[in-house]
Design brief:
Elements (H helix, E strand, L loop, with lengths): L1 H12 L5 E15 L4 E15 L3 H164 L1
Antiparallel strand pairs: 1-2
Length: 220
Amino acid sequence: MIEALLQQLLLQLLPSTITTTTTTTTTTTTTTTTTTTTTTTTTTTTTTTTTTTILLLQYFYYYYYYYYYYYYYYYYYYYYYYYYYYYYYYYYYYYYYYCYYFYYYFYYNYYYCYYYFYFYYYFYYYYYYYYYYYYVYYYYYYYYYYYYYYYYYYYYYFFYYYYYYYYYYYYYYYYYYYYYYYYYYYYYYYYFYFYYYYHHYYYYYNHYYYYNHHHFFFYY
């Protein structure tokens, strides 16, 4: 809006006419010859046109206009440059502290990674070591356990059959004992009857002998 007002004022102040100054010079040469005398006349005509236009106010206006805007943009440029420098300074400040903390973080992180790696390597190595031996012992344990189970199985198998035969042996032994008992029983009774029979037979024989003997003596 200010630009429009200034431009309108300039247009009102500028002149509407142009001043012209003209200078004319004419040169004429005339030669007259007679029998004994020669006369030469020279006339020079010069024309000079000078146009003067009053452009100082317009130049001053445009000069002021561009200077004003140049100063305006320069001021804002300086202003933004100042704040840019301000923020750059703080950015640099925070970047410095960030680098500072990053350095210490990296430093501690380096040692942390070192100890972590050392611990991890140590733990992994010994874990793998014990795991390997544990696996080997487990393998041999499983191996012996398998054979132990295998022998136990056959032992159980033979024990089962032994028990089986023992059971039948006991069974037969029981029946054998049973029959033996009855056999003994019958034998006992047989013996008893035999004894009894023998006893009676002996008694009968004695009586018979006695009887014959007496009769024999009696006969003689």
